[in-house]
């Protein structure tokens, strides 16, 4: 296990290089000049050129990229072009908020998804099964930003049960977490149902029932445990989707997390901030995938991680 984790940590290095290169090149193609934006409207060309020189934007692109990569491996993500503050400090301030939102969202995804999938699989093709799968299909189809606005209108504007926006207390967590978690729960529900149906039809399940074991024990002890492997994979992938979804949801609910920081940085062409934010989000996703691989072994000891 330790050898496997060490190998995966080494594999993170090319991931970092790939992410930094892709984001750097994309930001170079975005219209607009960061120096002109920072200089303000009506600034002279001399002022703009001075900004470009101070920011190092007048150097060749390859030189800019190599300089950035070298700083990244030293733990320096640069300074924001907008407020001159270290990018890493801003990310460390915003990241806990995004991670908290992602945690509660994935919790909703797992609980609702597993429960719905098990309910459907126990009595397949029944009215209950069809109803759950129809709701799951709707959950997959609804865009997160639209669902967020709908929930906000219903529970905040009409019923006035929950705050409209912000991140000031436990009640503020509910709507954003639901917005992110519902779509993932629908996907997990469909995967759980499919995996459970495959397992329930196996001989050892029939043997367990023939021994007189109670049905709930057969379902949760034997069927669910062996059906979890593909579900864990989907949950791991959904966590990556949640990190991407926070960009929209944090903007809709005015949450000062990492996603909103990236959006604001893109608007102002704050290249170091965008690169640093995307890099950190990518690393979080990589470590989540590592955790998923470790969970495989925890669930099924026969899996060879090497």
Topology:
Layout: H1 2-29, H2 34-39, H3 45-55, H4 61-72, H5 87-122, H6 127-141, H7 144-158, H8 170-200, H9 203-210, H10 215-252, H11 258-267, H12 271-299
Helix pairs in contact: 1-12, 5-6, 5-8, 5-10, 6-8, 7-8, 7-10, 8-10, 10-11, 10-12, 11-12
Structure, described:
The protein has 306 residues and is mainly α. It folds into two domains: 71 residues, no CATH class; 212 residues, MetI-like (MetI-like fold, Orthogonal Bundle). It is 78% helix and 0% strand. Helix 7 packs across helix 10. Belongs to the binding-protein-dependent transport system permease family. OppBC subfamily. It is found in: Cell membrane.
List the helices and strands in order.
HHHHHHHHHHHH
At the fourth CATH level, what is the homologous superfamily of the largest domain? MetI-like
Q: Helix/strand/pairing class, anyone?
A: mainly alpha
Radius of gyration: 24 Å
Shape type: elongated
Give the averaged pLDDT, no decimals: 81
Work out the strand percent. under 5%
Tell me what the CATH architecture of the largest domain is: Orthogonal Bundle
Instruction: Provide a count of the helices.
Output: 12
User: Which regions contain 5 or more consecutive residues with pLDDT less than 50?
Assistant: none
Helix content: over 70%
Number of domains: 2
CATH topology of the largest domain: MetI-like fold
Distance between the termini: 8 Å
Largest sheet: none
Count of beta strands: 0
CATH class of the largest domain: Mainly Alpha
Protein name: Nickel import system permease protein NikB
Organism: Sporosarcina gallistercoris
Family: Belongs to the binding-protein-dependent transport system permease family. OppBC subfamily.
InterPro entries: BPD_transp_1_N (IPR045621), MetI-like (IPR000515), MetI-like_sf (IPR035906), Opp2B (IPR050045)
């Amino acid at each position: 296990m330790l050898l496997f984790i060490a190998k995966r940590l080494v594999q993170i290095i090319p991931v970092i290089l790939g992410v930094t290169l892709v984001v750097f090149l994309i930001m170079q193609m975005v219209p607009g000049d960061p120096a002109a934006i920072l200089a303000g409207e009506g600034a002279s060309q001399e002022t703009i050129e001075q900004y470009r020189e101070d920011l190092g934007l007048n150097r060749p692109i390859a030189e800019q990229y190599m300089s950035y990569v070298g700083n990244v491996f030293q733990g320096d993500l640069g300074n924001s072009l907008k407020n001159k503050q270290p990018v890493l400090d801003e990310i460390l301030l915003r990241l806990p908020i995004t991670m908290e939102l992602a945690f509660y969202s994935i919790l909703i995804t797992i609980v609702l998804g597993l429960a719905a999938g098990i309910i459907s699989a126990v009595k397949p093709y029944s009215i209950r099964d069809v109803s759950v799968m129809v709701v799951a299909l709707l959950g997959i189809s609804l865009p997160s930003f639209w669902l967020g606005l709908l929930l906000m209108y219903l529970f905040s504007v009409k019923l006035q049960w929950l705050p409209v926006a912000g991140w000031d207390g436990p009640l503020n967590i509910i709507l954003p977490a639901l917005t992110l978690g519902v779509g993932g729960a629908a996907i997990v529900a469909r995967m759980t149902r499919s995996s459970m149906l495959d397992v329930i039809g196996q001989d050892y399940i029939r043997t367990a029932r023939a021994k007189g074991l109670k049905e709930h024990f057969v379902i949760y002890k034997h069927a669910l445990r062996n059906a979890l492997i593909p579900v864990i994979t989907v949950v791991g992938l959904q966590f990556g989707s949640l990190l991407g979804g926070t960009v929209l949801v944090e903007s809709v609910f005015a949450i000062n997390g990492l996603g909103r920081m990236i959006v604001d940085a893109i608007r102002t062409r704050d290249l170091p901030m965008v690169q640093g934010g995307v890099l950190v989000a990518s690393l979080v996703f990589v470590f989540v995938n590592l955790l998923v691989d470790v969970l495989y072994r925890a669930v099924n000891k026969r899996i060879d991680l090497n």
